[in-house]
Amino acid sequence: MTPADMDxxxxxxxxxxxxxxxxxxxxLAALEPQGAPRRIALVAEDVKTGIVVGLAVASLLPPQGExxxxxxxAEGQRHGVAxxxxxxxxxxxxxxxxxxxxxxxxxxxxxxxxFYHAQGFVETGRRPRYYADSQEDALLLGLxxx
Length: 146
Ligand SMILES: CC(C)(COP(=O)(O)OP(=O)(O)OC[C@H]1O[C@@H](n2cnc3c(N)ncnc32)[C@H](O)[C@@H]1OP(=O)(O)O)[C@@H](O)C(=O)NCCC(=O)NCCS
Known about the structure:
Elements: H1 3-15, H2 24-31, E1 38-45, E2 52-61, E3 64-72, H3 81-95, E4 100-106, H4 110-118, E5 122-131, E6 136-144
Parallel strand pairs: 3-4
Antiparallel strand pairs: 1-2, 2-3, 4-6, 5-6
This protein binds coenzyme A.
């Protein structure tokens, strides 16, 4: 992820109500090469325009990894962008000796839940009223990487 990608990533997330709205400092920290935990950030570009249309960020503490965010611009959704992003992320995670991926998601985020289930994630727990803004539960999902 380049600095320009980072600006675009923030733009994409800001336009999506369910994406985490990280401040710039969080992206900078996520991309700090010596930062801990180590993170992998991937972007998907439109093949014709080169414009970034999706992003995914995961943190790694092998053998575990956490998918911290995955988001695709609204007009680019349901065309397999997130599926391809996650496949690329899973490959990177495997190469880094990660065998288990976890994530948390708002219980009301049906598109994301459908996406995660389609990738093979299963529910492993629930954190009641985890999100302070809406008092909403977080669902914890996990996936074993083969
Ligand atoms: C979740 C999200 C990343 C999915 O991105 P996407 O590029 O549209 O997903 P894909 O096209 O790769 O979908 C792959 C499969 O996931 C499932 N899926 C994805 N979105 C779905 C939806 N809205 N409803 C039902 N199933 C869905 C389907 O099985 C889909 O396969 P299909 O289209 O062949 O039926 C996208 O909806 C998004 O950016 N949401 C807002 C941000 C967010 O909530 N991120 C997650 C929390 S950080």
